[in-house]
Specification:
Layout lengths: L1 H24 L11 H20 L4 H23 L6 H17 L3 H16 L1 H10 L2 H20 L15 H25 L5 H26 L4 H26 L1 H28 L16 H25 L1 H14 L1 H11 L8 H26 L2 H24 L1
Length: 417
């Protein structure tokens, strides 16, 4: 009985919260709303009661009967709205889902009911953001995303999940290689969606933050070149570039924590040390900067098939080179290959070290952590050298101290690992 009462309270609470959201989002005079706080609470309780009756009578008919009656009422409400010139049915669909949530609470699916409630309220509340995203996304974005989604969903399950090649170079696993492609592209896509939602034009610093999720290299290249035509914005451009670099360290930590927590703990100090230094220098630039302009920065959709296939091939090559370097030259070979690979793509060497740190290779975690740190520092150094070479003199003066501090601190941490 106590459990039933707890489930009842959860169903009532979820219904009330959904009703509050609907009333707060409604902009018409009181009395014209199809369902408000009380109605949504009653709908959730109706689902709970229908499931209870079906259970007590050992028959699904009570539940189906109540659902049909309730569905008829929703249909009548939708018909009335259509006649009034308001064909939307968001609230009507929300009431049906609320009914199911109430039933799920009785069936002891509390976590599922709570997840449905949160997802429903999020979808109802984020209407302006979804509209912004829909207007910001181009047809090319949709095609690129669909192509990648179809190939990932269809191709990934049929790829063989076994290693190919003669030992100890049997590191080619098609399934794992493509899975890493999907994983990395998903993180890049998150940054791309955030840029589409919030807009890179909101500010140079924000562009650096969001652009770092999509491509810190793109931020570096773009703002370095723009500093020549807008030298008065050298300090804000430097701020955006270093913010993008610091995001790279966070990104690496997130990837490693998601795939290998033991290695991630070894990386906390090597990643956090240059990250803290970079953030400190960003704070210094932010305080010193006097100009803050709105700049637009173009990012390509990271779900394009060509770059995804190139990354998969690069990941496989880096994995093979790292394995061969370890067999032929020991740990020194891994460090050299990490430095070279980091200049090309940090994600590829990070995923390679994660893979090599697992059985049966069992690469030492300290060696893997050093290799990843070397790759991130090589990437930072390469982008910094490019920015210094292609940027304006004012950008060079503002940028080089931050780059030097981040690389120096990261190199010092490697020595104490």
């Amino acid at each position: 009985m106590v459990d039933y009462f707890y489930h009842f309270v959860v169903a009532l609470g979820i219904g009330i919260f959904i009703g509050i959201q609907r009333e707060s989002a409604y902009d018409e005079p009181e009395g014209k709303l199809f369902a408000g706080v009380r109605t949504f609470a009653l709908i959730s309780l109706a689902g709970f009661g229908a499931a209870l009756a079906a259970d007590q009578l050992s028959s699904a008919l009570p539940f189906v009967g109540v659902l049909l009656v309730f569905g008829a009422l929703v249909a009548l409400s939708y018909h009335r709205d259509v006649r009034a010139g308001k064909p939307g049915m968001t609230t009507e669909m929300a009431t049906l889902i609320t009914f199911v949530i109430g039933a799920a609470c009785y069936w002891n699916l509390i976590l599922l009911a709570a997840a449905l409630g949160v997802a429903l309220m999020a979808l109802l509340s984020l209407k302006p953001q979804f509209r912004t995203l829909a207007h910001a996304i181009t047809r090319e974005d949709i095609y690129a995303t669909l192509k990648f989604a179809v190939i990932s969903i269809i191709v990934l399950p049929i790829l063989p999940n076994r290693n190919f090649g003669p030992p100890p170079f049997d590191v080619f696993n098609p399934y794992k290689i493509w899975l890493m492609v999907v994983f990395i592209s998903g993180i890049s896509f998150l940054g791309y969606v955030m840029i589409k939602l919030i807009g890179a034009q909101r500010g140079i610093g924000l562009t650096g933050l969001l652009g770092g999720l999509a491509s810190s290299t793109a931020v570096t290249l773009s703002f370095s070149q723009r500093s020549r035509t807008n030298p008065e914005l050298a300090r804000p451009f430097s701020l955006a570039i270093i913010v993008a670099w610091t995001v790279m360290f966070v990104r690496v930590l997130v990837i490693v924590f998601a795939l290998n927590q033991s290695l991630a703990y070894r990386l906390l100090l090597p990643m956090c040390a240059p990250l803290v230094v970079g953030l400190g220098y960003c704070a210094y630039l932010y305080i010193r900067q006097r100009a803050y302009a709105k700049e637009d920065l173009a990012f390509s959709n990271p779900f394009e098939l060509g770059p995804a296939l190139k990354f998969g091939a690069l990941y496989a090559v880096v994995l093979l080179i790292s394995t061969a370097a370890r067999v032929l030259f020991g740990n020194t070979g891994i460090y050299v290959s990490s430095f070279v690979s980091g200049i090309v793509d940090v994600d590829a060497i990070v995923l390679s070290m994660i893979d090599l740190a697992r059985a049966p290779t069992n690469l030492d975690l300290i060696v893997a952590a050093r290799a990843i740190t070397i790759a991130t520092l090589a990437s930072t150094l390469f982008k910094g050298v490019f920015a210094l070479a292609s940027g304006s003199p004012a950008l060079r003066r503002a940028l080089w101290p931050g780059m030097a501090l981040m690389v120096a601190v990261g190199a010092a941490v490697i020595l104490v690992l």
